[in-house]
Amino acid sequence: MSLLLFNFAPSQTWIQVVLLVIGIVAVVKSAGWLTDGSVGIATRMGIPQIVIGLTVVAMGTSMPEFFVSLMSALGGKPGLAVGNVVGSNIFNALLIVGVAAMVAPISILHGTVKRDIPFALVASVVLLMLCLDGNISRLDAAILFVLFLVFMYLTLLEARKGMKAGEDSLEQPVNIGVGKASLLIVVGLIGLIVGSEVFVDNASALAHTLGVSDAVIGLTIVACGTSLPELATSTVAASRGNSGIAIGNVLGSNVFNILMILGVTGIISPMSTQGITTVDLSVMVISMILLWLFSFTKYRIERWEGGVLSVLFIGYIAYLLYQV
């Protein structure tokens, strides 16, 4: 089954496994290039790295989710489309932040705690409310997309204020030329998208062989697969001391997933939320609340807090598997 623009899944199972591993390797390598390029641009232009993470990196690493959800909705698989977004956001807030924090404690800017995390939480709550009737209509999708435009406006407005005030970032600068940095970003994004497509196609093929439903595939395998760019990018960024990219990428991706991806997809093709339960949506909201609470502790997410988030994610996946 091909959900994306291309089908990278052959019929032989052993080749699917090999390509799945190759997809993971491509994603991790590309994440390093994307991180270096993004930090280089931020350093050269004097833009706070948190803004780069919330916009360029977040949009680029959310492209796999966008393609999967759009093609799923158009292909008559709304459970997979919505499940991909909900599952990806849970994966982002619990496992990605958890793993990144265990690699290196994440320092968080004051503005992120006061503005960015609350906005991501509001987006999650709005989606929960809109899904209570079991559908995402064109009106619902339009509301999500308008909120996305508001988010982009506030983010860019804050960037201008930061640039005028000469705001210092918490991260280590990367001194590379703009041309090289731009090339790294482009190559990194292409590698992330292609690597994710290879992973998702082959993981989905293996899952269907086992007879797993579309909703569960969306919440687990596809969500994890399309979130590999965020996991790789945030982990690499954290290990290199670039906390703004690490946390900004997660928050930006969560907002993009809900407001932009479901907004655009729902306007094009209204969706039912079949297979997505209140438990799934509630876990998404609770994960953002926990991330916000942990961020208030000295404006850092410590290793033990990252461990808690990771354990909660494992517990959620165990719950899904038990339900299956």
Automatic annotation (TrEMBL):
Q: Does the keyword Membrane apply?
A: yes
Protein's organism: Hallella mizrahii
The record's InterPro entries line, in alphabetical order, gives:
K/Na/Ca-exchanger (IPR004481), NaCa_Exmemb (IPR004837), NCX_ion-bd_dom_sf (IPR044880)
The UniProt transmembrane annotation reads 14-34, 46-70, 90-110, 117-136, 142-160, 181-200, 206-225, 246-269, 275-294, 306-322
Q: Name any GO cellular component annotation.
A: plasma membrane
Coiled-coil stretches are none
Q: Per UniProt, which keywords does this protein have?
A: Membrane, Transmembrane, Transmembrane helix
Domain of life here? Answer: Bacteria
One Pfam family matching this protein? Na_Ca_ex
Which cell locations does it reside in? Membrane
What is the protein named?
Calcium/sodium antiporter
Keyword hit for RNA-binding = no
What are the residue boundaries of the Sodium/calcium exchanger membrane region domain, all occurrences included? Answer: 17-156, 183-321
* Entry GO MF terms: calcium channel activity; calcium, potassium:sodium antiporter activity
What's its membrane topology? Multi-pass membrane protein
Q: Which GO terms describe its biological process?
A: intracellular calcium ion homeostasis
